[in-house]
Amino acid sequence: MSFQVRDNPAHDRYEMDVDGGTAVANYRADDKVVTVFHTEVPAALRGRGLGDHLVKGTLDLIRASGRKVNPRCGFVAIYIRRHPEYHDLLA
């Protein structure tokens, strides 16, 4: 299964459409660091691993932008801890 995560800077969040809902990762960003402070998957869609897909896509977009990440969201911090390929993104 492939999920597309997109940046929505007008709303300061990354978004992923899935099964009629939208999972989001809210952030604040500057030129060097993106601080992700909250992630949310619609309640009816939880428990299916969608949060992992959201975070992976979010981190990939942050990497592509040349910035680092400050994971203020516990879910994002745990994901990074479990995936060493993203350790270099930590601010």
Specify the CATH homologous superfamily: Gcn5-related N-acetyltransferase (GNAT)
User: How large, in whole angstroms, is the Cα Rg?
Assistant: 12 Å
Overall structural domain count:
1
Q: What's the end-to-end separation, in Å? A: 30 Å
Q: Strands across the major sheet, in which order?
A: 1-2-3-4-5
Helix residue percentage: 25-40%
Provide the CATH architecture: 3-Layer(aba) Sandwich
CATH class: Alpha Beta
Shape: globular
CATH fold node name = Aminopeptidase
What do the pLDDT scores average to?
95
Helix/strand order, N-terminal first: EEEEHEH
Number of strands: 5
The main sheet comes to: 5 strands, mixed
Class from helix and strand fractions: alpha+beta
Low-pLDDT parts are: none
Strand content: 25-35%
Keywords:
91 residues, alpha+beta, Aminopeptidase, 5-stranded mixed β-sheet, 5 strands, 27% helix
Structure at a glance:
The protein has 2 helices and 5 strands, in the order E-E-E-E-H-E-H.
Tell me what the structure shows.
- The protein has helices at residues 50-65, 74-82; strands at 5-8, 13-18, 21-29, 33-40, 68-71.
- The model has no long low-confidence stretch (mean pLDDT 95).
- Helices cover 27% and strands 34% of the residues.
- The chain is an alpha+beta fold.
- The chain is globular, with a radius of gyration of 12 Å.
- The longest helix has 16 residues, at 50-65.
